[in-house]
Structures are given as C-alpha cells and as structure tokens.
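pasting for ref
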Amino acid sequence: MTAGDPDDSRMTDDDYHALDPRVVTLWRLSYLIGFGILLLVCLPLVVTALFKWIVWGYLSLALWVVLFALAVWLTYWRPPRLYRAWSYRIDGKVLETRSGLLIRVVRLLPLNRLQHVDLSRGPFERMLGLASLVLYTAGTSIASITIPGLEAGEAVRLRDELITIGGDDAV
C-alpha cells in the first residue's frame, strides 16, 4: 500500500471488527435455498423440453447442469470470501464499514447524523444466534447501512453504544 492509496488511513486493521464466523453458514444457507428454488423451478422445464424437442432438451439439460455446478461452486466459494472482506469500526465520531469482493465498498456514517437503529433477526439468524444491525440517516433511499452477521448480544450492545454516541438526534 502506498501513501496515496485510498485505503491508506491512520487506523490499523486491528481497529476493525470482523463479523461472527457463523455468518458464513447463514450465507451458505441463503444461497442454497435461493439456488435450490431456481433449479427446482427450471427442472420441469428441462424435462419437458427433453421429451418434446430432443435437441433443445439436451441444450437445456446442459444449461441446467452448468447452472447447478455454478450454484454449488458459489455456495461453497463465495461466503468465506465475503466474510473475510467484511469489517467495521467505530471511532467515536464515525462508523466505517468495508465490504465487497470485486468492488471494495467503504461506507462512512457520521454518528451525529444517525437517525435510528434497527435490529433485524430472520429465522436462520435466530437459529444461528446472529443479528443484523440497520443504521438509518436522513436523506435519500440509500441512507442506510446494514451490518450483517453480528452475534446477537454484540448487536444489542453495538446498537446501544451507537445510540449513546449518536447525539441528541439519535432515537
């Protein structure tokens, strides 16, 4: 990293917090369900094509097999890499999140602009003891930051800390 690199800052990697490792299992379950539904919906179409139009049937079967292989590969490969790419830090004035595999996204939320904080826990998150924290600011439709895959107790603690730091406007 050079001195002019945009990722260069005075904060060290030790200042950043990682997500809970169980988020890898959560993401894998999500991919498995999503790809499973897609593949199951496509399967009857492939079988029908095999019986009606032999050439198109084999082509659609080959496409389905490629989609299946891609689904298995992404379900196995992507979640651990997403986990390693995600981190966040709070320095008393700003919440910073880092994420992204191909495109690195660094988002800064000045804590004095924080409007409210939501704690979200879907069924799989509850099963794994995880929660997501959603932070909102006033403004546009993209005026929110979500921190996924936090241990549930840590998410509550972080929510309370952010509300305390957020200032007079925090709810």
